[in-house]
Amino acid sequence: MEGDRGVVLATERYGSAESWKYFGKDGVMERRRDGGESESRGKSIVGVFKSVFLPQGYPESVSSDYLQYQFWDTMQAFSSSLSGTLATQASLKGVGVGNQEATVAAATITWLLRDGTGMLGRILFAWRKGLFADVLNDFAMFLEILAPYFPAFFTLIVCTAGIFKSIVGVAGGATRAALTVHQARRDNMADISAKDGSQETLVNLAGLLVSLVLIPLVTDNPILTLSLFFLFTTLHLFANYKAVRSVVMETFNEARLSIVLQQYLTDSRILSPAEANQREPVFFEFRKQVPIKLGVRLPDELSLALKNNNMPFLLGLRNGCVCVCLGPEASVHDEIRALCQAVWLSAFSHLHNAYFLFSFKGHWDMVHESHKLMDKIFSPFLKGVEAAGWDLKRTLLDWDEWRVGWKTKSN
């Protein structure tokens, strides 16, 4: 009973992990942990696990989608590790391991060519991101498994697979960096990255142990090898899809802003980050009616671009695209408004006669109309998205590096 222990002088807690109370009685202060001894021992074991594999301060120090994403990410990494084991065994067999007629020099050259083409792929395909890269990674491992059965084309096949696998390395690094920034709620990116490394090491260790049992079973058994590969690949892609769908990004990219704006223009309803993320395409890029280019060079018709426009950006339609020039002083809110106008122009162009829209007079009339529309709706739209939980301090919009300064009539 707390009454027998004395008066509670103070309490303290370590995040959400444990709590203590300080009792004062007869001039003596005593500290006791909340909960019984068995519960305390259980908490200490859980505490060790959390300190090794979870960021400090979890769950308060990370985003609400952290645990669900990490679970599915762990599942996809485990299945990919097992698929990689099958592919590695096939590659080693292809370069001559276990074949007395194979030479060390030939095997070395083949392996170096495989690694070299992979390095080249990492340079050339730094632009490719998304689940498409994971599909290519699985396809690359499938090629490596098949390669030993086509000895005449073995080097070509494994080099092609190396290029495909390099893409997922580039895309994975870029995606992981963006997710780390999203998950860090206390600017604790370093801690989250370190714990992600610990989780990945644990998964790879588990995959290694399972592989030690798996390899003797699949050796010289191509049917079982392919069957297990397709099983692991299906699990890998499913877990990847679930991992991506579990992420709720609160910052705008072009797709999420387009989805939210189009819903607002339809029924004046603001979508929450969770709703917009569920509508965002996973396998394919967001399809726009007319392409939008952000951060382009100055338009030729400067006087028309400045008409009815006092914003630090310019809009126009050029070569079938909606183009946006950004001024050097533009804020994040200006960037959001510029894309909102571009999205409206893109949608309008899809609904109206192309000759009218892309005629010299017609498209500038629509640009001027977009300025008037945004003058009316942008302020309440901005307040609505902020109230819905969107982060307006930064964006993930894909601006090019051109910045344009211009003189207005007033100066």
From TrEMBL:
<dbReference type="GO" id="GO:0016020">
    <property type="term" value="C:membrane"/>
</dbReference>
<keyword id="KW-0812">Transmembrane</keyword>
<comment type="similarity">
    <text>Belongs to the RUS1 family.</text>
</comment>
<feature type="transmembrane region" description="Helical">
    <location>
        <begin position="200"/>
        <end position="217"/>
    </location>
</feature>
<dbReference type="InterPro" id="IPR055412">
    <property type="entry name" value="UVB_sens_C"/>
</dbReference>
<keyword id="KW-0472">Membrane</keyword>
<feature type="domain" description="Root UVB sensitive protein C-terminal">
    <location>
        <begin position="269"/>
        <end position="406"/>
    </location>
</feature>
<dbReference type="InterPro" id="IPR006968">
    <property type="entry name" value="RUS_fam"/>
</dbReference>
<dbReference type="Pfam" id="PF04884">
    <property type="entry name" value="UVB_sens_prot"/>
</dbReference>
<feature type="domain" description="Protein root UVB sensitive/RUS">
    <location>
        <begin position="42"/>
        <end position="267"/>
    </location>
</feature>
<dbReference type="Pfam" id="PF24160">
    <property type="entry name" value="UVB_sens_C"/>
</dbReference>
<keyword id="KW-1133">Transmembrane helix</keyword>
<dbReference type="InterPro" id="IPR054549">
    <property type="entry name" value="UVB_sens_RUS_dom"/>
</dbReference>
<protein>
    <submittedName>
        <fullName>RUS family member 1</fullName>
    </submittedName>
</protein>
<feature type="transmembrane region" description="Helical">
    <location>
        <begin position="223"/>
        <end position="241"/>
    </location>
</feature>
<feature type="transmembrane region" description="Helical">
    <location>
        <begin position="153"/>
        <end position="179"/>
    </location>
</feature>
